[in-house]
Amino acid sequence: MAAYRSAAGFQRVLLAFKHVCLKQRCGVIICRYSTVYDPNEKTFDKILIANRGEIACRVIKTCKKMGIKTVAVHSDVDSSAVHVKMADEAVCVGPAPTSKSYLNMDAIMNAVKQTGAQAVHPGYGFLSENKEFAKRLAAEGVTFIGPDTHAIQAMGDKIESKLIAKAAKVNTIPGFDGVVKDAEEAVKIAGEIGYPVMIKASAGGGGKGMRISWNDEETREGFRFSSQEAASSFGDDRLLIEKFIDNPRHIEIQVLADKHGNALWLNERECSIQRRNQKVVEEAPSTFLDPDTRRAMGEQAVSLAKAVKYSSAGTVEFLVDSQKNFYFLEMNTRLQVEHPITECITGLDLVHQMIRIAKGYKLQQKQSDIPINGWAIESRVYAEDPYKSFGLPSIGRLSQYQEPLNLPNVRVDSGIQEGSDISIYYDPMISKLVTYGKTREEALKKMEEALDNYVIRGVTHNIPLLREIIVHPRFVSGDISTKFLPEVYPDGFKGHMLTAGERRELLATTAALYVAAQLRSQNSGLFLCNSIITDFVVEIDGEKVEVSGEWNLASALLPITINGKHRNLQVDKHKYAYFKLRVLSKLAAYLSKHMPEKIPEDTSSILRSPMPGSVVAVSVKPGDNVAEGQEICVIEAMKMQNSMTAAKTAKVKSVHCKAGDTVGEGDLLVELE
């Protein structure tokens, strides 16, 4: 993160000001559905949403449009969550850990009975692809809003799904079609397939339980971590191994099928921008596909859906190489996180479609009715530190939160509000920020503007990374793959690198803000509100910079004009600033040069937790000798396990944690001599 020290005594500052008040603008929210919500089409009186956060809120919104009452379930720490407030009823299903609440099948079944819900929408994650949950609901006469148990079983097991895909004439990746028994068998199979290989959980998805291996040692380690993550996330530690397609694109097809044998493909979503096999930025359509490839992928996706008699919304994921050869990856038998961008370009409300299908209605559309209208882009906004492995989880309370819904063609799917807590127990997603345009260029420009106008305080977030991605020349040109982030940032994300001109603009704006604030505090009687109109000319290194704007100094957002160009500025006095600057008097600036510099900590001898989480395992004890790169402990955060290794060969001096401990970011774990 860049840091600059700025002195108040610039050679020349000219200013003029007035006092005015800013006017509020009403928001325009896009993605209006072409779907007609027919009040005479009977579906369900009451639906329970077996999920939390933004997806629970998303389902509730459609239920309200359809006149359906809703039931929220929540853990004890989520009792004041947004989805709980939005629902007509709410039931607590246990304490914070997911295994005791949102994965607590008995508690959720009791909530269904207690409230008399006729159907359950599972959202994504948690129990959404759990066939036992669907079976138990069916046994109680409650409708599961999703596919039947056969399809969940067939597609949820990656080994079985691959065999079914082959039989349905769907292109598949070469690999081992059985269950891998242990680490040594994994090494043997990997050698037969040929490195690199992908080790992944047979059940589940979302990037959990997946490791890429380039040699025998990585295969052993990958088998251990993948099986542990799979057991933790899905209750199933079975693994499979297949050839890793190097440098591919990740493109998926949205399908929709009813109980009458009708099935459609709703075009594709480009999901190649990923970190740790989890998507970060998605768009629809893809810049890469031509009409023939799109149709071929869509037809194979529908063929697979029909092969398992699929009925609901589902997603068939493919890897696509540089020659547009595509290979089946997996099928997600649920609503996908990134479904909003498909809704934007097709006009279909996918939750509405899922509810209709679950009730037994036929699809209202034919394949020829499915359009590609415009372009949509989704950025996943996470409470993560993007400067650590492209995003390690951050926790805290949202002290200030303002979504950019004042902008046209912007949609924000979120389940939080100002004051909400981001905890270690759940996924760190804050929201899904979606922008739409007639063209990709329009959608990208709108995304840039939306990110600049998104105010998040209290937690570290990944907006700096998202903004750099969407303006990067490679992304803008469509030259992307799943390796985009490590290729563009081989040494990790370091933030925006300022040009000389940008540096001058930043310093000039900082000086102007400082002077404006001083004027306001010294002449408070002249200002009847927080807003002032200001015009400054700041001279830096012989260059003049004109800074002007109508500023509300109490606002988190400051629209300004720098040398005739419009900019949006956010000022944060806490630790979450993108660029950190100090304005000093000449005397303070002179004296600061003589202040002793803080000696950085010797990180080679001290291992600290890079994120909040829980200690899964500690592999050393005081007196042990460890080699550089040797695993010392494992930290789990948001169901992802991270191996902490020794930075040098040394003897262990002390151990400050044990398995089961909860640790915060920066907590001391182990000291080496």
Write the layout of secondary structure elements.
Blueprint: E1 3-7, E2 13-19, E3 46-49, H1 53-65, E4 69-75, H2 82-86, E5 89-94, H3 105-115, E6 119-121, H4 131-139, E7 143-144, H5 149-156, H6 158-167, E8 175-176, H7 183-193, E9 197-201, E10 210-213, H8 216-234, E11 239-243, E12 249-257, E13 263-275, E14 278-284, H9 291-307, E15 312-320, E16 326-332, H10 339-346, H11 350-359, E17 375-382, E18 384-385, E19 392-393, E20 396-397, E21 400-402, E22 410-414, E23 421-422, E24 429-437, H12 440-452, E25 455-457, H13 463-471, H14 473-477, H15 484-488, H16 500-522, E26 531-540, E27 543-552, E28 557-562, E29 565-570, E30 580-584, H17 586-592, E31 606-608, E32 613-618, E33 625-626, E34 631-637, E35 640-645, E36 650-655, E37 662-663, E38 668-672
Parallel strand pairs: 1-30, 3-4, 3-6, 4-5, 6-7
Antiparallel strand pairs: 2-26, 8-11, 9-10, 9-11, 12-13, 12-15, 13-14, 14-17, 15-16, 17-24, 18-19, 20-23, 21-25, 22-24, 26-27, 27-28, 28-29, 31-38, 32-34, 32-37, 33-36, 34-35, 36-38
